[in-house]
C-alpha cells in the first residue's frame, strides 16, 4: 500500500497530498485513489519535537512549516514527472496545542507544547469558574491538565489575537483562511459534544472573546485555495485546494480502522498506538454521565459526526524515551532484538501506571520507570529487556482496563480490538494486548492516519464514495493485516 518510487497505475482517479505530523515526526504523503483502492507514497519525512524556547517547552513551528512547504514542493515535482495533478491537500496533527495570530496574520510566538507544565497551575482557577461536572456534561472531555482550556487560562493578553490549533494554523498559512476543524475543536474544552458547536458560555465564564477561535468547519469541507505566493513557492497550481479532514490525527486514524461490518466486527474497540495510545469505541452519541466523567473518558468528535469515546493513555513514548536515554549512554539496541528479548521474559513481572503525569516530560525514562516500580515495593532490574517488558505489560494491561471500562460505561460489547498506527508493528505489544483483553487483535494499517486523511479528501472530490463503512472497505481490501489470538491470561491490575 505504500512505498517510495511508486509509479502511477491505470485506474487512478485522483491524487491527494496528506500532511501528517505527529509529536516526534512528520510526513508529506501522496495518496492515489480509485473507487476500490488507495496507494500511498511518502515523499518527504522530517523530524519534530519540543524545544526549550524562552524558558518553556515549545514547538519550532517556523521550522515545521518550512518542512511542510518542502514536502509539498517534492510532491509537486513527483506528480509533475508522472503527468498527474494534486487535487487537494489535507492536514492532520496532534491535538490541544495552538498558535496565537494577530490581525496581520503573524504568529506572535512559537506555540507551547502540551508537555510544558505551565497549565498545571491554571486548573484550579478554571474549575473555580466552571465546575468540572458542568464542563463534562457539555464537552464530554477527559480531564488532562494540558487541555486547551487550561493552556489558554495562562495567557496574559489575548486582545486582538486569535487562537488557531496547529493543523488550522498550517491551513491558514497556506490559504489565508482562518477556520477550526471540528474533530480537533472537540479537544479544546470549548466544544459542545451534543450540539457540535462552540460552547460560547465557557469563553464568557473565563473572560475570553467568543471569537477567540475561528468558525468551525467539518471534515470534507474546503478551507480555501493556496495563496498565490505559496502556490508559486511549492510549484502547485493556484487553484489547488486545502480540504479539511479529521485534523486531529486520531480522528483520521479511526476513520481508517479496517472494521468489517459484514462479519460482526462492527463491535470493535480501537487502539491508535503511537507516542500516545488512544483507546476506545466509536459511538453514535456521546456518553456524558457522571460515571463516565469519574472514569476520565473523553467524547471527541469523529469523522461524519461520530463520537470517539476513548481514553488518552500513555504510549510508546515511554520506550522511545528509554531508547534516547540508552543512546546517550552508548547503548543502541536493535528494536526487534530488544522486543524479542523482552518477549522471552516470563509474564507477571512488575508494572507501572503508564498514565501517570510523572512520565509526560522528557527525562531519564529508564530510571523514572524503575523508580515508579520501587515505590510499589517491587524491583525492576536495570536491564533494557526487563524495562521494555515492563512497558509492554503495563500498556497491554492498561488497554484491557480501558476497553472493559468503555464497554461498561457505553453499554457496548467488543468482539475484536483493532490496533492501528506504529504500534501495530509491535508484535509483542499486540500479542500481550490480545492476552490481556481476551479478544482477538487485528493489527494494521500502520499508516491509518494518512489513509483516513486521504480518503476523506477523495470522498470530497469524488474518487471515493459512501460513509465510513465504505471507506473502511477500501482500507481493508488493500491492507495486509495480522491477527493475534489470545493465548494466556496475564494479570490486569496495575500499580501506582
Automatic annotation (TrEMBL):
Show where the Carbohydrate kinase FGGY C-terminal domain sits.
269-461
What SUPFAM superfamilies does this protein map onto? Answer: Actin-like ATPase domain
* InterPro entries reported in the protein's UniProt record: ATPase_NBD, FGGY_C, FGGY_N, Rhamnulokinase
The UniProt record lists the Carbohydrate kinase FGGY N-terminal domain at 17-254
Write one Gene Ontology MF term.
Answer: kinase activity
Keyword annotations from UniProtKB, A to Z: ATP-binding, Disulfide bond, Kinase, Nucleotide-binding, Rhamnose metabolism, Transferase
Similarity comment text for this entry:
Belongs to the FGGY kinase family.
Q: What is this protein called?
A: Carbohydrate kinase
The species this protein was found in: Arthrobacter liuii
Amino acid at each position: 500500500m505504500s512505498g517510495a518510487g511508486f509509479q502511477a497505475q491505470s485506474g487512478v482517479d485522483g491524487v491527494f497530498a496528506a500532511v501528517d505530523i505527529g509529536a516526534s515526526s512528520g510526513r508529506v504523503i501522496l495518496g492515489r485513489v480509485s473507487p476500490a483502492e488507495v496507494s500511498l507514497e511518502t515523499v518527504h519525512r522530517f523530524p519534530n519535537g519540543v524545544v526549550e524556547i524562552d524558558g518553556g517547552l515549545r514547538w519550532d513551528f517556523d521550522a515545521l512549516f518550512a518542512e511542510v512547504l518542502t514536502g509539498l514542493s517534492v510532491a509537486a515535482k513527483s506528480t509533475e514527472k508522472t503527468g498527474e495533478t494534486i487535487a487537494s491537500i489535507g492536514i492532520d496533527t496532534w491535538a490541544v496545542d495552538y498558535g496565537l495570530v494577530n490581525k496581520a496574520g503573524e504568529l506572535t510566538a512559537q506555540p507551547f507544547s502540551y508537555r510544558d507544565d505551565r497549565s498545571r497551575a491554571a486548573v484550579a482557577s478554571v474549575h473555580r469558574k466552571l465546575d468540572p461536572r458542568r464542563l463534562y456534561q457539555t464537552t464530554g472531555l477527559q480531564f488532562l491538565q494540558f487541555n486547551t482550556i487550561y493552556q489558554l487560562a495562562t495567557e496574559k493578553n489575548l486582545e486582538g489575537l486569535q487562537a488557531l490549533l496547529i493543523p488550522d494554523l498550517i491551513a491558514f498559512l497556506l490559504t489565508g483562511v482562518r477556520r477550526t476543524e471540528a474533530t480537533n475543536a472537540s479537544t479544546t474544552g470549548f466544544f459542545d459534544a451534543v450540539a457540535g458547536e462552540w460552547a460560547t458560555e465557557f469563553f464568557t465564564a473565563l473572560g475570553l472573546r467568543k471569537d477567540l477561535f475561528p468558525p468551525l468547519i467539518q471534515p470534507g469541507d474546503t478551507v480555501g485555495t493556496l495563496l498565490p505566493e505559496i502556490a508559486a513557492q511549492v510549484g502547485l497550481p493556484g487553484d489547488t485546494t486545502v480540504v479539511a479532514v479529521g485534523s486531529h490525527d486520531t480522528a483520521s486514524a479511526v476513520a481508517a480502522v479496517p472494521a468489517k461490518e459484514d462479519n460482526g466486527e462492527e463491535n470493535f474497540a480501537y487502539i491508535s498506538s503511537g507516542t500516545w495510545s488512544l483507546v476506545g469505541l466509536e459511538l453514535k452519541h456521546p456518553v456524558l454521565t457522571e460515571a463516565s466523567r469519574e472514569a476520565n473518558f473523553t467524547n471527541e468528535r469523529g469523522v461524519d459526526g461520530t463520537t470517539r469515546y476513548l481514553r488518552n493513555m500513555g504510549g510508546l513514548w515511554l520506550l522511545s524515551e528509554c531508547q534516547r536515554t540508552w543512546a546517550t549512554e552508548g547503548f543502541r539496541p536493535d528494536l526487534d532484538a530488544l522486543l524479542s528479548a523482552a518477549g522471552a521474559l516470563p509474564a507477571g513481572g512488575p508494572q507501572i501506571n503508564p498514565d501517570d503525569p510523572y512520565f509526560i516530560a522528557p527525562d531519564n525514562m529508564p530510571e523514572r520507570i524503575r523508580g515508579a516500580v520501587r515505590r510499589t515495593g517491587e524491583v525492576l532490574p536495570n536491564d533494557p529487556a526487563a524495562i521494555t517488558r515492563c512497558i509492554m505489560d503495563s500498556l497491554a494491561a492498561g488497554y484491557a482496563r480501558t476497553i472493559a471500562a468503555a464497554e461498561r460505561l457505553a453499554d457496548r460489547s467488543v468482539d475484536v480490538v483493532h490496533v492501528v498506527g506504529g504500534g501495530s508493528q509491535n508484535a509483542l505489544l499486540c500479542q500481550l494486548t490480545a492476552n490481556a483483553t481476551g479478544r482477538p487483535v487485528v493489527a494494521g494499517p500502520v499508516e491509518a492516519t494518512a489513509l483516513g486523511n486521504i480518503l476523506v479528501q477523495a470522498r470530497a472530490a469524488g474518487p471515493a464514495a459512501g460513509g465510513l463503512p465504505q471507506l473502511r472497505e477500501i482500507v481493508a481490501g488493500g491492507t495486509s493485516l495480522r491477527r493475534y489470538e489470545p493465548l494466556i491470561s496475564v494479570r490486569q491490575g496495575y500499580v501506582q
